[in-house]
Amino acid sequence: MTIAVTGASGHLGRLVVESLLARDVAPGDVVAxxxxxSAVADLAGRGVVVREADYDRPETLRDALxxxxxxxxxxGSEVGRRVEQHGxxxxxxxxxxVARVVYTSAPRATTSALVLAPEHKATEELxxxxxxxxxxxxxxxxxxxxxxxxERARETGEIVASVGDGRVASASRADFAEAxxxxxxxxxxxxxxxxxxxxLGGDVAWSYDDLAAAAAEVLGRPVAYRRVTPxxxxxxxxxAGLDEGTAGFVVAxxxxxxxxLLSEASGDLARLLGRPTTPLVExxxxxxxxxxxx
Length: 294
Prior knowledge:
A seven-stranded parallel beta sheet has the order 3-2-1-4-5-6-9, with helices on both faces. It contains twelve helices and eleven strands. The chain is α/β, with parallel strands linked by helices and 294 residues long. It is globular, with a radius of gyration of 19 Å.
């Protein structure tokens, strides 16, 4: 039986595949399921099985999941379309006889007011109603989400946000990917984590003052966190060229952080990894392009 990873050409999915290989899963037992197979030609060259899998084309999903024991369903990137797309994958998994689906969700998805939670909540409900064995990995923010902020701070010397004193328990994508690989391998080996919901995040919930300090260390120049109100933030974003809808979305996310919705440091991620999660400054240093670093 094999382990399949959807979105294997994306940032997280590719890292899950790499983590599986690093855990000595044979390349021929790993299926990289992707929309465009040429995007992972390097993985095919290493012996990984590459199959076309388009969330919007169910016929590709059925073929992609043939003979798969454990499916790591990496949530889609198209906000507003994910429930339908994920539903297509869940139905294909049922038809293919997949033994376990491991889904990458959002923090406290079924109860949170997080602006991104509803589609994850709906997907978790689809999985619960499907009859499939499932494991849910509720991933907190990726440290890599802040690369653009750090790059701007190289020029401006500040990180501007309306999060107030809110905190974020982020971890690196590699941490989350390794956790997904751990769960997938355990599930294939002995059925571990069946029905489990893991709230995954970094060991430390950091503030934006901490983010500014980490950015300063990476960039080798002073960086400050400038607090603004939601109204001021929206004006700044629109003034920088964002459309009203996108600006409103960013401000809403900052409001979620201000309200503490990303601050949970449960320890689940470190327990799965068997090691501490990647500290903020190390995650930023690895993600920020070398030409921008000190």
